[in-house]
Specification:
Helix content is 84%, strand content 0%. The protein has 291 residues and is mainly alpha-helical.
């Protein structure tokens, strides 16, 4: 009789233990799934990054002549040369007049090419900002379920709206300013996911853009102060990557840290082009750590 009781108790304990282990595994699996940000939130960040990349490219093209733009952005040069050769073979009638007209048409084409490139770039940006609003709408309910702050939500929406208005006004400085501020607001939401590195990376992108704008506006002290805040973001990245023991990404963090130091050192040289280069290296390094 005692043996039966003991066996029964052992069997009950075994069933309870198995059930608890199963529940623990299920909870662990659920936790693992919630540690990374959902694609809709990541898509908002990528859309902002793409717009800011386009603005940086357009900013570089602003000072180019039509001829320079054509050389840098068109592969039709060889086709135009072939067309000229073909024209020479057709005959000698009114050669001087034809060459003069061809030259005029070519100049017009170059001007049109630059204008068309700019119009296409703005059209792409318009489409992207619309998609960003849709992606945010897709994500927002998920943020609420993660107990996201209403204040932070309002802050992000305000920055996103200002970003959108700047795009509508075709104001490149304001786009870069409000776009980077939107990235900074977005970082809070990435922090809701324990192992997500995108929160710190978006803060670093924000610092790179804002330091560049401040330095461009002759606020060197403000730029220097901003670049001095990044050490804590780098430390956070190291902690999260360390757990995964990813040596390649740790080396990428070193590159990012060094590039931030380089930009800070470049402030004393008062060169807008140099700062633009250093900014773009930082942004390239952050993108290398996003995946």
């Amino acid at each position: 009789m005692n043996r039966k009781v003991i066996l029964s108790m052992l069997l009950i304990n075994l069933l309870i233990s198995t059930s608890c282990m199963k529940t623990t595994k299920e909870k662990s699996a659920q936790l693992a799934q919630s540690e990374r940000a959902p694609e809709s939130l990541v898509s908002v960040m990528r859309g902002i990054d793409e717009i800011l990349d386009s603005i940086s490219s357009m900013e570089r093209n602003t000072g180019l002549s039509s001829s320079e733009f054509e050389v840098l952005h068109s592969d039709t040069g060889s086709k135009n040369d072939k067309a000229k050769d073909g024209g020479r073979n057709r005959g000698d009638q009114s050669k001087d007049g034809m060459e003069s007209n061809a030259g005029g048409n070519e100049d017009n084409k170059k001007l049109t090419s630059k204008d068309e490139g700019t119009l296409k770039a703005w059209k792409t940006i318009d489409d992207r900002i619309e998609k960003i609003h849709k992606d945010w709408n897709s994500y927002e309910a998920k943020g609420i379920k993660k107990a996201a702050s209403i204040e932070k939500s309002n802050e992000l929406k305000e920055n996103l709206n200002l970003f959108t208005i700047a795009i509508e006004n075709r104001d490149m400085v304001s786009i870069m300013d409000n776009g980077s501020k939107t990235l900074f607001s977005l970082s809070y939401y990435f922090d809701l996911y324990r192992d997500e590195v995108l929160g710190d990376l978006t803060r670093i992108s924000y610092v790179a853009y804002q330091a560049y704008l401040k330095a461009k506006g002759k606020d060197i002290n403000g730029a220097d102060k901003l670049l001095g805040t990044v050490d804590k973001y780098i430390a956070n990245l190291r902690q999260k990557i360390d757990r995964k023991q990813n040596k390649e990404k740790l080396e990428s963090i070193d590159k990012l840290s060094l590039s931030l130091g380089d930009m800070r050192q470049s402030l004393r040289d008062a060169s807008e082009k140099l700062l633009e280069i250093k900014r773009d290296i930082i942004l390239e390094n952050t993108k290398g750590l996003q995946n």
